[in-house]
Design a protein that fits this description.
With 137 residues, this protein is of the alpha+beta class. It has a single domain, classed as ph1033 like fold. Helix content is 25%, strand content 35%. It contains five helices and six strands; from the N terminus they run βαβαβββααβα. Strands 2-5-4-3-1-6 form a six-stranded mixed sheet. The longest helix has 10 residues. It starts with a strand and ends with a helix.
Length: 137
């Protein structure tokens, strides 16, 4: 299993919106960055990801599961763009802020710290475990 991080502006798509989709989940559509698209192409069914609120709060708020591998993005006719489908698994009891992540020396090499603008990114096993611990999981 691999781990990922999905960033969303809560005013556009929030954790509550994701939870409301239930087991059916939702396409992680609208990504128009080649690097992020390529990350999604690596995802497999059952992989887990952090749901991260960007913009104001900047924090990990939930865990999602990949329920459909990369497929054409339904929001465009351009065949270059693909997405995955994800469903909410559980909230993070204590949201983990970007400030807390940056303050943790063991997370200094995390993509979230090094490339804060990438909307979909990989998370290493050790990073996943540490952020889950920081979040009360």
């Amino acid at each position: 299993m691999a781990y990922w991080l999905f960033k969303s502006e809560p005013s556009t798509w929030s954790w509550d919106d994701q939870v409301a989709k239930g087991a059916a989940g939702e396409e992680w559509d609208g990504v128009r960055n080649y690097q992020a698209r390529n990350v999604m192409r690596e995802m497999k069914l059952g992989d887990l990801g952090f749901f991260y609120h960007s913009q104001k709060d900047k924090e990990v708020v939930g865990i999602v599961e990949v329920i459909a591998e990369a497929h054409p993005d339904s929001t465009t006719d351009d065949p270059r763009w693909e997405c995955v489908d994800i469903k909410a698994v559980q909230p993070v009891p204590e949201p983990v802020t970007l400030a807390a992540i940056k303050a943790e020396p063991k997370l200094a090499e995390m993509v979230l710290v090094k490339n804060t603008r990438l909307s979909v990114q990989p998370v290493r096993d050790d990073e996943w475990a540490l952020i889950c611990k920081m979040g009360g999981l």
